[in-house]
Design brief:
The chain is of the alpha+beta class. Among the domains are: 87 residues, 2-Layer Sandwich (Alpha-Beta Plaits); 77 residues, Beta Barrel (Elongation Factor Tu (Ef-tu), domain 3), CATH 2.40.30. 23% of the residues lie in helices and 26% in strands. Helix 5 packs across helix 10. The two termini are 21 Å apart.
Length: 455
């Protein structure tokens, strides 16, 4: 699931499909936008230098390769000319560069993948606190008498029953029940909703909602406010203590998946409490100027001799996978329904039916042929995206997310199975089948949603 900020998507707009694209790949444009990291892993994994930890090296290989393909070849065959697609920058871009942020292209933005060590950043969030720049996320406001009707029709979870001041995880569907994006929806008023969407899908989701409202003559305004907001997230067991001190207010009254408007240093801010790491935490929506100042102040906070760390995309990905949160472009896509993607719990039977509701309810009741599973390796190795998954000797699926868990200290991952297994499951790693064990729920249970006295 995403942050109030559905977090990361590894769909990189208009990037070639692989790090050494074929002739067809060069002209595939957005049809080949999903990033394939395997060539980098396979060719570089044997070249690691002593002293460089595996996870840091893993992400370093990925993003060095991304940089090397920074020229996106999008022109028609026979007229191929390299054109540089300008990357967007968040208001904190210069701060990232000044503080050793390793910047990479990501969903049309230049974003930091890490500042120090991915392992160090990962453990800081699990044990203490970390800060994330998520201003690349998209924000959409839907308001008017038909706002609830519009969103009930396009989303599979309940919308109208959401209380003011609360947030609900949801998914915007296409007409066949596939996922346009997973989102978080804020109820701001009787006829007003605020949606946070993944960076790579913000334009697509806005255009879909706007077009449907117009096509159905609904009395609802759909406004793309993605350029109007600065957004940072603070995550970790000590997030509440550190943010409360800086804001000068008690945040314990903001429940899980709730938000509150307040003033800080004379500026209006909205503080929400969701998360994308499995740990307790908050997101702060503000103006750019207020957000930059708040970011710097929070990083300077000292709690018992320890300060929060800035955290990049690398640790963000390993944290969300340990928490078993889905990622668009991996577990989630337009080709899979919420039930097939493992988030069927958000499919609800509603008085106002959503797109393909009968299909989704039938899948939820009777199961699906395709489904996402979580697993741990029962042997050496690290599962990588696109590795084959076997049931006995038959290949029945592929890994969609995989890494080495810094906390469990073993390989973990998720896989899309095309059919139900009828034999021992394994993942093929370097031409060797390594047994796997299916895991229900998170790989690592954090502090998210837990009161301090219950941790």
């Amino acid at each position: 699931m995403p942050l109030a900020v559905p977090g990361l998507s590894t769909t990189v707009d208009k990037l070639p499909h692989s790090f050494k694209p074929t002739r067809d790949d060069r002209f595939a444009g957005t049809n080949r936008s999903r990033l394939n990291i395997l060539p980098a892993l396979r060719s570089q994994s044997k070249k690691a230098k002593p002293g460089l930890n595996a996870l840091d090296f893993y992400y370093t290989c990925i993003y060095i390769r991304i940089f090397s393909w920074g020229l996106f070849l999008l022109h028609a065959q026979g007229e191929q000319k390299p054109c540089i697609m300008p990357l967007k920058e968040t208001p904190l871009h210069s701060w990232h560069r000044e503080h050793n942020g390793r910047m990479v292209p990501f969903a049309g933005w230049e974003m930091p993948v890490q500042y120090s060590s991915i392992i160090e950043e990962h453990k800081s969030v699990r044990e203490f606190c970390g800060l994330f720049d998520v201003s690349h996320m998209g924000e959409i406001r839907v308001q008017g008498p038909d706002a609830a009707l519009l969103l009930e029709t396009m989303c599979c979870n309940n919308v109208e029953t959401l209380k003011e001041g609360k947030i609900r995880y949801n998914a915007v569907l296409n007409e066949s029940g596939g996922l346009r994006d997973d989102v978080t929806i804020f109820r701001r008023g009787p006829e007003e909703y605020f949606i946070i969407v993944n960076a790579s899908n913000s334009d697509k989701v806005f255009e879909a909602i706007h077009a449907y409202a117009k096509g159905q003559n609904l009395n609802a305004d759909v406004i793309n406010e993605s350029d109007d907001w600065h957004l940072i997230a603070i995550q970790g067991p000590e997030a509440e203590t550190i943010l409360s001190e800086e804001l000068g207010t008690d945040l314990s009254d903001i429940g899980y998946f709730a938000f509150k408007d307040m003033q800080w240093n004379g500026s209006p801010v909205t503080v929400s409490r969701t998360g994308y790491t499995g740990e307790d935490g908050f997101e702060i929506l503000s103006s750019a100027d207020a957000g930059i100042t708040l970011w710097k102040n929070l990083l300077a906070k000292d709690l018992n001799g320890r300060k929060p760390l800035p955290v990049g995309l690398g640790a963000r990905d390993s944290l969300r996978l340990e928490a078993r949160y889905p990622l668009y472009g991996h577990e989630l896509s337009e080709d899979l329904t919420p039930v097939e993607s493992g988030i069927g719990w958000i499919v609800k039977e509603k008085a106002t039916p959503c797109f393909a509701m009968e299909k989704l309810l039938e899948q939820k009741q009777n199961g699906t042929k395709k489904n996402i599973i979580g697993f741990v390796l029962k042997g050496p190795g690290i599962p990588r995206e696109d590795y084959n998954v076997y049931s006995g000797d038959k290949c029945i699926g592929k890994v969609v997310s995989g890494t080495h868990s810094p906390i469990r200290k073993e390989g973990i991952g998720t896989a899309l199975l095309e059919e139900q297994p009828d034999g021992e499951l394994s993942v093929e790693i370097r031409e060797k089948k390594v047994p796997i064990e299916i895991i229900e729920g998170p790989f690592v249970s954090g502090t998210a949603g837990k009161k301090r006295k219950d941790r």
